[in-house]
Design a protein that fits this description.
This protein has 456 residues and is α+β, with helices and mostly antiparallel strands. It is 33% helix and 27% strand. Strands 3-9-10-16-13-12-11 form a seven-stranded mixed β-sheet, sandwiched between helices. The chain has a five-stranded mixed β-sheet with strand order 20-19-21-22-23. Strands 5-4-6 form a three-stranded antiparallel β-sheet. The structure holds glycyl-adenosine-5'-phosphate (GAP).
């Protein structure tokens, strides 16, 4: 079985309609990507899996859909205006811009740049004469902190009071709606609020396809709890993250934990789950113990009482928050790397097959008339029946073998062939993507059989 490189993945995604370069016909816009028909289906299926796992199948769990644009004071209160920065330096020779921590980490893997101060980083870079990855010189400016938030202006005036920001994380939407959700849902601690939505970061060194982009989608989940139960809940969500990835078909040995040495301004503890990408281990999830930092800051800035009243003890307190956050685009990429395989069929022949779990497959069934002019009418009838129940494609172009392969390459679990037996006896052939085995099913039982096999 072959492992695919990042370049091959980019080309696969483009060829089969998963992911295209953003603004392609205008020459593109660096590090923006558009999801094609199959990519957007896959994304939606992962969102549905997250909704099932985090909202539907849990107690006291509520979904939210808050706006991307928020009152800019929120970013002051949350600390993002002052602290959501990366250490940046420029090469004086070629003017390329780099993140100081990345320069160090790529130069010496064992050093933990995260744990260094700005001065220590500069000292390390100079002492080791770390070469510029672009031109090879080692002549840098001082390090300065660069804020990652995208600012824009609202209204017709351009004064500083009209500056607003594209949210750099979804979480603040959950925090500023915590009272609303609690009141309207009559929620009692512990309860959770999750949401799926876009976030934006002016990343200095984006790259690795959709791994690090400036616009991306997060699935964030905030659990509100009483101080004292926070550490147990933190450990629980670290494990829950692994089980969610296994549910998506990513095996445990391709995942690892990475505890943070240097913590974000809001966190008491933080741990990532990383996936083994072709370029190395990369974060796809983070669990953070955000304590009562965010709610306390919103209370301080708005003078709104953010306390929870606990009936049993008559205590009032600001809840702690355990955050479990998932990068959707990175998960799509991990699922694709995990599933895409090239299989040897015999000495001469191979097949490309996306062995994606059935619940994530963009298209569930591919309907194929064996002979176009003889079986297409019946095949279209079957196609129209099935598509009321699941995502189905219809393919009549090319040999049956080629059509099977096209379905395999995009991960379609089942192919249904319509042939003379269908016309004469009312039965169809179902071919399984992974085993390539075929079985005969009565047309009347087809919907039930597929629903059972696909767990719909
Ligand atoms: N609310 C906390 C928070 O935003 P984060 O670790 O900065 O935490 C959460 O981001 C997740 O979002 C990450 O685990 C990652 O999967 C994804 N993510 C972060 N920056 C990204 C980027 N530039 N491009 C794509 N995904 C990104």
């Amino acid at each position: 079985m072959k492992q695919f490189s990042m370049e091959q993945m980019v080309s696969y995604c483009n060829q089969y309609g998963f992911i295209f370069q953003g603004s392609e016909i205008y020459g593109g816009l660096a590090n923006t990507w558009d999801y094609g028909p199959l990519g957007s289906r896959l994304k939606n299926n992962i969102k549905d899996a997250w909704r099932y796992y985090f909202i539907q199948n849990r107690n006291n769990s509520y979904e939210l859909d808050s706006d991307i644009l928020m009152n800019p004071k929120i970013w002051d209160a949350s600390g993002h205006l002052s602290s959501f920065t990366d250490p940046l330096l420029d090469c004086k020779n070629c003017k390329a811009r780099h993140r100081a921590d990345n320069l160090i980490q790529n130069y010496e893997e064992t050093v933990i740049a995260d744990a260094m101060t700005q001065q220590e980083m500069l000292h390390f870079i100079k002492e080791n004469k770390i070469p510029c990855p672009t031109c090879g010189a080692s002549n840098y400016t001082d390090i300065r902190q660069f804020n990652l938030m995208f600012a824009t202006k609202r209204g017709v005036t351009e004064d500083s009071s009209s500056t607003i920001y594209l949210r750099p994380e979804n979480a603040q939407g959950e925090y500023v709606n915590y009272l609303n959700v609690m009141r309207s849902m009559r929620a009692k601690l512990p309860f959770s609020i999750g949401q799926i939505g876009k976030a934006f970061r002016n990343e200095i060194t984006p790259g690795n396809f959709t791994f690090r982009t400036i616009e991306f989608e997060q699935m964030e989940f905030q659990s509100f709890c009483k101080k004292g139960s926070d550490e147990e809940l933190y450990d629980y969500y670290k494990d829950y993250g692994i089980s969610f990835f296994e549910y998506l078909g990513i095996p445990r040995d391709h995942l690892r934990y990475h505890d943070h040495e240097k913590l974000a301004h809001y966190a008491k503890a933080a741990c990532d789950i990383e996936y083994s990408f072709p370029f190395g281990w990369g974060e796809i999830n983070g669990t953070h113990n955000r304590t009562d930092f965010d709610l306390s800051r919103h209370q301080e800035y708005t003078k709104t009482n953010m306390e929870y009243f606990e009936e049993a003890t008559k205590e009032r307190f600001i809840p702690y928050i355990i955050e479990s956050t998932y990068g959707l685009d990175r998960i799509v990429l991990a699922v694709l790397f995990e599933s895409l395989t090239e299989e040897m069929l015999n000495e001469k022949d191979t097949r490309l097959v996306l062995k994606i779990s059935k619940n994530l497959a963009p298209i569930k069934v591919n309907v194929l008339p064996l002979i176009k002019n003889r079986h297409n009418e019946k095949a279209k009838e079957v196609y129209q029946t099935l598509r009321k129940h699941m995502m189905v494609s219809y393919d009549e172009a090319g040999t049956i073998g080629k059509r099977y392969r096209r379905g395999d390459a995009i991960g379609t679990p089942y192919a249904i062939t319509i042939d003379d037996q269908t016309l004469e006896k009312g039965v169809v052939t179902i071919r399984d993507r992974d085993s390539m085995e075929q079985s005969i099913v009565k047309i009347d039982l087809l919907v039930d059989e597929l629903r059972k096999n696909l767990n719909i």
